[in-house]
Amino acid sequence: MDPRIIRKNTSSNFSEDNVPDPDKFGYHNGYRKVERGWLTDETVIQFKLFNNPIKLWKNRLQNRKVFIKMTPVNLVRHNSLELQQYGGDCVDDSLSIDTQDIVDQPAFSITEVAVMNDEENQFKYQEQFGRAYNDDEFLIFSVAVRYPEIIAYLVDFYVYSSRSFPGEPPNHIGFSYILPSTLQASVGLLTVPITSSKHRPIGQLTVEYVAIKPIPDYPWDMSISYAKHWEQRWSGLDVGHRGLGTSFKFEMKNCANVRENTVASLKTAAHHGADMVEFDVQLSKDMIPVIYHDFYVSISLKRKKQIEAMDMLEIPVKDLTLEQLHLLKVYHLAEAREKNPRFFDEDLEDHQPFPTLQTVLQELEQHVGCNIEIKWTMQLKDGTFELNHPFDLNTYLDIIIKVTLEYGGDRKILFSSFNPDICAMIRLKQNKYPVVFLTQGITAKYPTYHDPRCQSIPMAMRHALAADILGINVHTEDILRDSSHVKVVKDAGLIIFCWGDDNNDKDTIQHLKKLGLHGVIYDKMDEFNGKEVKESIFLVDARESQKALIALAHCNQTCGPQQQTLPDPISTKKDYVFELEKARNSIAAASTATSLASLANCSLGGDTIYPVPNANLLNCCGRPGDREIGDLAKDFSVCAKTCGHPSKPRNVSELVCGEPITFPEIPGEDESAKDCL
């Protein structure tokens, strides 16, 4: 890349009276648009300090504000053969003056700190003596290193004297070491001693960590990145919860009539106008991503002496292979408790429980967006876990992400999880799909999670800003209690979805949309969806871009020297796949008669749209031929501003060369969609 060069004494394009205000790097329309990249060959270790993790035993240090600084330390000497193996080149540096340890500071290491409050929720470099830890705060130290196997982490502790003068440095009271041998798992909890400068233990530090590794051998680039992309018109989206809805509630009247998280349920929700469908993904024993919500299933067992009697045994999904999940007669936990099976349609392929993620992405219509919730065990506030997970978290996520990348195509996809570390990991592992953080908030309906970032909307918002993800997905109970949260989240530049049983009501859904939520997740799409036209907003977007191309091509034919008949347009039935972004790029990129002619064999998303004959715009209706095609496209009203409802545009005959035009009818459209032209 060649940088721009402004030479000395170059005259300005502006006069002294109209000099614009200087722009601030990374800001657009008042929002910060600088984004973090993705991991290539480095590893990020995040150390989380919360719930008062520092315990000091000396009386004179009680109730003193302690400053913490973390520094990566290379354990391999700079002149050793082992260091040459890692390609390192380090410089000696004394990091802990009182201990007189001469250690190697690793090259290419970056240490940042963020605090989950309103002022410091963005990662930034540490101060000289670190950052003070206050009671009930949540600190995250993020360290990026190339060779985590040989890197330890030195934690220095400082305290200011009660008689110190302004500008006087603090006293170094002790240090701790976190060795790489203790960081073998992707996530964990550590307790390390705090040693004084006289090499005596004076306390202990408890820290939780997450190690984020890149996806191995995957080629990433900037050709497509939706990590922070969200169109303004994508507001009030209807999102089908587990497809058509939960099917195993205690009251049958509130249950969907199709088994949840099956291909049939997802397709039925799409048929009834869902913009997106939400479903849960976890791994089977043979590490294949399957769609299922609960961590456990029930299987029936026969007793030795009572052949007629059946017992139900609960077993984790993770302990069964995909073949076993498909072949065994398994029951939902609700069915096992009541001993009353609710569905008997497993013989139908689309109604089979445990469809794979690959199958769902291949079978579901491309215009239907997917909200993929990644299931992972969560620690509750009482210290217990929902499940003892045997998988390494990095491997677990890599498998799910790779399947999504391979079979997701150009579908609109969101990743989500209740685990805040998973959200941060997915954001750093890839740059194609956005991530939203699911938060439980303040509620008595569910047990409280251990991590404070899961316990309220403000904490969830701060985590989303720190992790640089797209937004949050909140419990509707919090929104109905205090609707001002919606504006606060949107003002921070985040999108906001909502979930919960409160959403299963038409009036509540409309109220939430009026508040400005970007998406509402609810059950029974066939009953509660209030759209007049039952189709996804992404299909409406695709159709509008297609019609703009049709109008442009028709104008060229009508006004050009050659009069030819347009062929029949492509079908917009459910097997039709249209790539909206490529269509828009094609319109924006074409600007001359030559480029218009190049659309003759235009293929978008693998489907030929319209063969356009060679023509010259120079004499089109006697108007200049240098008019941008993008300008022509701007004349068309954009339908489906929100919720997939088309708006009434101007007459196209006023726009294209001043001549009335009759467009060929597109099969498979509804009447309101035809009004777009």
From TrEMBL:
Domain of life: Eukaryota
Sequence ranges assigned to domain GP-PDE in this UniProt record: 236-532
Keyword Transport among UniProt keywords: no
PROSITE patterns for the chain: GP_PDE, PIPLC_X_DOMAIN
Keyword hit for Cell inner membrane: no
Keywords annotated in UniProt: Hydrolase
Alphabetical list of CDD domains matching this protein: GDPD_GDE5
GO molecular function, one term: glycerophosphocholine phosphodiesterase activity
Annotated GO biological process: glycerophospholipid catabolic process
Region (Disordered): 1-21
Family in the record: Belongs to the glycerophosphoryl diester phosphodiesterase family.
Name of the protein in its database record: Glycerophosphocholine phosphodiesterase GPCPD1 isoform X2
Organism for this UniProt entry: Cephus cinctus (Wheat stem sawfly)
